[in-house]
């Protein structure tokens, strides 16, 4: 048998766990490391096969087991047991190798996470944000044309604005995926995850509060536009540390418009322009901040 | 076997494993700088990476020659202050390196995992 098997040189194997060589005399185990690598490297095998291949005497077996314990997993199970009693034990190269590999993967992920947390997110595009501003203005026009009295037709009002929100979110999500891959390459998944993590709570609260108000406190449905804007501002604020610093400006805008909307105190808050102006100008502000920062940080990851 | 090998040619070449980054001390220097995009002072780096002055200087010089980081020498309160910062090219190279390294570990994990599964299946078959 040659000393190089399954891509593992005998010397490399020994250098990794040199103590095995010292503890097990060459005469007892023969070409132990290379044969063991060949036997166990891919499939594992029964103890009997290991013993025969390594020409290990039966009484030397406990020494081998003790010595290899750190590198190889010994499976003893009724399910795996073969007919012959000496085959009831089963070796496979696992334990330490798997733990090390998983630890290495964990370390790499941790480095990536740290890098992602200190990197500015560039997955939001200014053109898409400006597009969503356009959607908001179109929705306001549509509401003005088709839902004359939104307080009496709250479901139509909701349909228009929920569809606008869904289409905008889908567009932003789609662009976030493609743009992040281009701008952040290896960090893209981590960056997208963080971006979603930061904004998702606000989106969920907005959706839940809509359900609760419409279903249980229909008289207070006029509060929805104000609440949406305030909750949206919280989402913008929580995403701020991951985005250009100036992103706080649109956050303040949404907070102010939300408070004004709520202060109207009645169904006037359901007016098409209460939403149209707030989200139309707000998203344009977001687009402007992204645009000017993209100019400054061109080429950065 | 030949065609299979040909089809997966270069599968394990790992071209992205950059020798410059692969050195342990340089890897820790770059990771520290990646997580501090505004840069770190020489002393901060020395402490974060547990390196001596001479060692750190040598590694910083190598990385600077590769244009992976920029070193700004100035003064603060009449004291010399050296600040190191990753360049855009350095960040890109480091991320490519990390991605390749992750692939290497995943490949190794897959082989180990498959080995274990095949073994268990083989046993089950032989028992049946």
Outline the structure in words.
The complex is a heterodimer of chains A (301) and B (128). Chain A starts with a strand and ends in a 5-residue tail after the last helix. The radius of gyration of chain A is 32 Å and the shape is elongated. A 3-stranded antiparallel β-sheet of chain A has the order 3-5-4. A two-stranded antiparallel sheet of chain A has the order 1-2. In chain A, α8 (126-146) runs antiparallel to α9. Chain A contains 13 helices and 5 strands. The longest helix of chain A has 31 residues, at 154-184. Chain A is mainly alpha-helical and 301 residues long. With 128 residues, chain B is of the alpha+beta class. Chain B is built from 6 helices and 3 strands, in the order αααβααββα. Chain B has helices at 2-7, 19-22, 24-34, 42-49, 53-65, 88-127, and strands at 40-41, 69-76, 79-86. In chain B, a hairpin with a 2-residue loop joins β2 and β3. The longest helix of chain B is centred in the C-terminal third of the chain and has 40 residues, at 88-127. Chain B is elongated, with a radius of gyration of 22 Å. The mean pLDDT of chain B is 83. The A-B interface holds A 40-46, 73, 75, 79-83, 90, 92-94, 97-98, 101-102, 104-105, 108-109, 111-112, 114-115, 117-119, 185-187, 299-301 and B 31, 34-37, 88, 91-92, 95-96, 98-99, 101-102, 105-106, 108-109, 111-116, 118-120, 122-124, 126-127.
How do you describe this structure in short?
The complex is a heterodimer of chains A (about 300) and B (about 130). By secondary structure, chain A is mainly alpha-helical. Chain A is built from 13 helices and 5 strands.
Task: Fill in the keyword field for this structure.
heterodimer, A: 301 residues, two-stranded antiparallel ribbon, 5% strand, elongated, B: 128 residues, alpha+beta, three-stranded antiparallel beta sheet, 6 helices, 3 strands
* Largest sheet: number of strands, sense, barrel closure of chain A: 3 strands, antiparallel
Give the overall form of chain A. elongated
Give the tally of β-strands of chain A.
5
Strand residue percentage of chain B: 5-15%
Low-confidence stretches of chain A: 1-35, 62-73, 75-93
The percent of residues in helical segments of chain A reads 55-70%
The helix count of chain B comes to 6
Read across the widest sheet of chain A, the strand sequence of neighbours is 3-5-4
- Tell how many strands the DSSP assignment of chain B holds: 3
Q: Approximately what portion of the residues of chain A adopt beta-strand conformation?
A: 5-15%
Rg over CA atoms of chain B: 22 Å
Q: Estimate percent helicity of chain B.
A: 55-70%
What string, H for helix and E for strand, traces the elements of chain B in order?
Answer: HHHEHHEEH
Element string of chain A (H = helix, E = strand): EEHHHHEHHEEHHHHHHH
Largest interface: A-B, 39 and 32 residues
Q: Could you say which overall geometry of chain B the principal axes of the C-alpha atoms support?
A: elongated
Strand order of the largest sheet of chain B: 1-3-2
Radius of gyration of chain A in whole Å, from Cα?
32 Å
For the terminal residues of chain B, how far apart are their CA atoms?
Answer: 30 Å
């Amino acid at each position: 048998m040659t000393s190089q098997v399954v891509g593992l040189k005998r010397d490399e194997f020994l250098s990794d766990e040199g103590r095995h060589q010292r503890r097990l005399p060459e005469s007892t185990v023969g070409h132990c490391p290379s044969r063991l690598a060949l036997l166990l490297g891919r499939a594992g095998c029964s103890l009997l096969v290991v013993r025969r291949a390594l020409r290990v005497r039966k009484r030397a077996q406990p020494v081998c087991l003790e010595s290899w314990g750190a590198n190889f997993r010994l499976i003893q199970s009724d399910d795996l047991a073969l007919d012959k009693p000496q085959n009831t034990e089963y070796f496979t190269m696992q334990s330490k190798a798997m733990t090390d590999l998983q630890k290495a993967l964990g370390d790499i992920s941790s480095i990536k996470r740290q890098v992602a947390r200190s990197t500015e997110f560039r997955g939001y595009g200014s053109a898409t944000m400006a597009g969503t501003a356009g959607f908001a203005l179109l929705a306001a026009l549509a509401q003005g044309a088709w839902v004359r009295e939104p307080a009496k037709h709250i479901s139509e009002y909701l349909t228009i604005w929920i569809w606008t929100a869904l289409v905008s979110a889908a567009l932003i999500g789609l662009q976030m995926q493609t743009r992040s891959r281009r701008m952040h390459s290896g960090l893209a998944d981590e960056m997208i995850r963080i971006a979603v993590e930061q904004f998702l709570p606000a989106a969920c609260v907005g959706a839940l509060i809509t359900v609760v108000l419409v279903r249980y406190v229909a008289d207070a449905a006029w509060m929805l536009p104000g609440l949406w804007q305030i909750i949206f501002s919280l989402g913008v604020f929580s995403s701020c540390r991951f985005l250009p610093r100036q992103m706080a400006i649109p956050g303040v805008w949404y907070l102010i418009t939300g408070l004004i909307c709520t202060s109207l105190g009645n169904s006037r808050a359901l007016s098409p322009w209460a939403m149209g102006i707030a989200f139309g100008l707000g998203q344009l502000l977001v687009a402007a901040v992204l645009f000017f920062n993209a100019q400054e940080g061109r080429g950065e990851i | 076997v030949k065609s299979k090998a040909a089809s997966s040619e270069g599968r394990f070449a790992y071209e992205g494993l950059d020798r410059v980054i692969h050195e342990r001390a340089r890897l820790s220097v770059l990771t520290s700088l990646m997580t501090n995009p505004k840069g770190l002072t020489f002393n901060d780096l020395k402490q974060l990476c547990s390196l001596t002055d001479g060692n750190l200087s040598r590694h910083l010089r190598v990385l600077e020659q590769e244009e992976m980081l920029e070193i700004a020498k100035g003064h603060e309160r009449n004291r010399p202050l050296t600040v190191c910062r990753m360049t855009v090219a350095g960040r890109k190279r480091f991320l490519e390196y990390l991605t390749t390294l992750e692939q290497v570990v995943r490949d190794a994990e897959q082989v180990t995992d498959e080995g274990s599964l095949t073994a268990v299946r083989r046993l089950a078959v032989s028992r049946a």
